[in-house]
Amino acid sequence: MPLDLYYTPGSSPCRAVLLAARALNVDLNLKLVDLHHQEHLKPEYRQLNPQHTVPTLVDDGFAIWESRAIITYLANKYAKGSPLYPEEPRARAMVDQRLYFDIGTLYQRFSDYFYPQLFAGAPEDKEKLARLEDSMKLLDKFLEGQKYVAGPNMTLADLSLVASVSSMEPTPLNFSKFPNVVRWYDEIKKTAPGYEEANGKGLQAFKNLVDHLLKK
């Protein structure tokens, strides 16, 4: 049975799953969800995912959503023993911590700052930008003296975080304040398998959306 991924190209969490699947060598059957036409609110989609979010993975009748849960599921089931999600308890705990930092701090602060401007026409909130910058300072600290966010090797945490960080390109955030992040970002773009196909194209779609909505 194929693994179906319901996704939207511009979505950062969707791009994280595409990056992880490529790195784990897992084939996905991609099913586009058109948020503009509210396909995520259709009864058949809500039956799969009552939260009606993207991405959603369906594996032989088993549906799971939330990108970080999806990518760890893929590693556990289809790439057991992969260094992308190490089995040694301390190494795995570090990867998990960075994944939780992504969803609970970095991506949360990014979405809290930028999405009200993008989707609701809200004015920029400088305090929210400052909180986003604080989270980037933490990421910069995590990368001090090491190549990747959870140690010497690339892991799922890098792939999840790079999807979030790349989505900040259209914002006024000054990346030069975070030299370790800049160095790491450049490294991931060069070394993550299929980076351009899995993240670059979707990122451009997101940038196009930003240009369209902010010029209204």
Automatic annotation (TrEMBL):
EC number: 2.5.1.18
Any matching Pfam family: GST_N_3
The UniProt record lists the keyword Transferase: yes
Domain GST C-terminal per the UniProt entry, residue ranges: 88-209
Domain of life according to the entry: Eukaryota
UniProt domain GST N-terminal: residue ranges: 1-82
Transmembrane segments annotated in the record for this chain: none
Keywords from the UniProt entry: Transferase
Cleavable signal peptide: none
One GO term of the biological process aspect: glutathione metabolic process
Gene Ontology molecular functions: glutathione transferase activity
EC class (word): transferase
PANTHER family: GLUTATHIONE S TRANSFERASE D10, ISOFORM A-RELATED (PTHR43969:SF9)
Binding partners and assembly: Homodimer.
Protein name: Glutathione S-transferase delta 2
Species of origin: Heortia vitessoides
